[in-house]
Structure of Thiamine-monophosphate kinase:
Amino acid sequence: MAASRRHPDGVRHGIKKQGELMLDEFARIRLWTGERQRPALLREQGVVLGIGDDAAVVETPPDAEGGATQWLLAVDTMVETVHFNDATMGDADVGWKALAANVSDIAAMGGVPRHALVSVSVPKTWEPARVGRLYDGLYACADYYGVAIVGGDTTSSPAQLVVAVTVTGTVEAGAAISRAGASPGDAVFVTGPVGMSGAGLHWLLAAAEPGAGQPVPLAAAEADGTAALVAAHRRPLPSVRAARLLAARGTVTSLNDVSDGLASEAWEIAMASGVTLALRESQLPYSGSMTAYAHRRGVDPLEWMLYGGEDYVLLGTIRREDAEAARAALAAEGLPMYIVGEAEEGEIGVSLIRDRGAARQAGRREAIAKRGYNHFNG
Ligand SMILES: Nc1ncnc2c1ncn2[C@@H]1O[C@H](COP(=O)(O)OP(=O)(O)O)[C@@H](O)[C@H]1O
Ligand SMILES: Cc1ncc(C[n+]2csc(CCOP(=O)(O)OP(=O)(O)O)c2C)c(N)n1
Ligand SMILES: [Mg+2]
Ligand SMILES: [Mg+2]
Ligand SMILES: [Mg+2]
């Protein structure tokens, strides 16, 4: 009979011959998820029954005035080697980002993120402590955004780690903001700088030592002036508060979040709405550290800004007459909003008006390619 004893965490573990803790699937799940969330948060999200049964039970939350809400449902997956590797991300960063990418999709509909289901497929080579750290990051992000983790699934995996997070959110009935409502004359905005994550990834891949088997330390990035870029890549901060403030104004006509790159997301709005989005180069939110790093590496910063991706800021359109007031209202809350262009009538597409610095050529227009991160193309 397998030896076992009561571990201080209250979970019953088998003991390997060498004395190493051997946890079965259910013990691991309890270790990763047991009593990790504040009871107040679970109550706030209407969780009647959370982790531990066949399915979670949650109440449908009313809006602030007691009115009806609608559910928002989204899922996003992260796969080792595709979305991260040993060098680019720590295990806790993977957990944070897996949930953050989902929270960002709820923000992109103008909603409030509420619940999450977490599916992990774990290679046999991953010691349990690594998944424990992944859950540290997941729960840190869940706590930050007030999301209740109410269940999930656990399997082994023949090779890479896969983590898939499903989120729910709610939005006032009829108030979800799609990609399809932009009209000619609307202002185009973003809720934060773009290109930092792509630049951070570039730096991380260059700094990675083959076979080091551990993430590039943040201290190395600090020493090189790229810590903000690495943080943007590892710990994105989706724009939930900005989304809620903007949605409440009733003047936002389309919204999307930047996962595949500003160009790709702008194309999605342009196609869904049947407009051209014209971006002004001089108005784009250039980050100082991203621009400095790009110049050091001889890269055009626009490359990361337009095509880098994983920024998890929002791109949207808003009625022109409310654009400046909305910007000021967000600024009053310490939240950035940059007006970066205009929706126009005409052929569906995205263009860039070159009106910045040395590249200035009397406002020359360039067509922006429908390119960005694509899982089956490059
Ligand atoms: N395998 C799939 N089955 C059904 N719907 C999918 C699948 N993959 C993606 N989708 C849907 O296609 C749309 C685009 O997906 P995606 O580009 O991943 O969105 P996002 O960038 O917002 O995460 C979304 O509505 C998503 O729900
Ligand atoms: C090791 C590594 N290589 C490449 C990338 C770049 N990358 C991977 S996925 C992705 C786009 C975003 O992921 P996706 O699954 O397309 O999210 P979604 O659009 O569904 O929200 C990018 C830019 C990375 N993050 N890490
Ligand atoms: Mg997706
Ligand atoms: Mg999205
Ligand atoms: Mg994508």
In short: The longest strand covers residues 112-123.
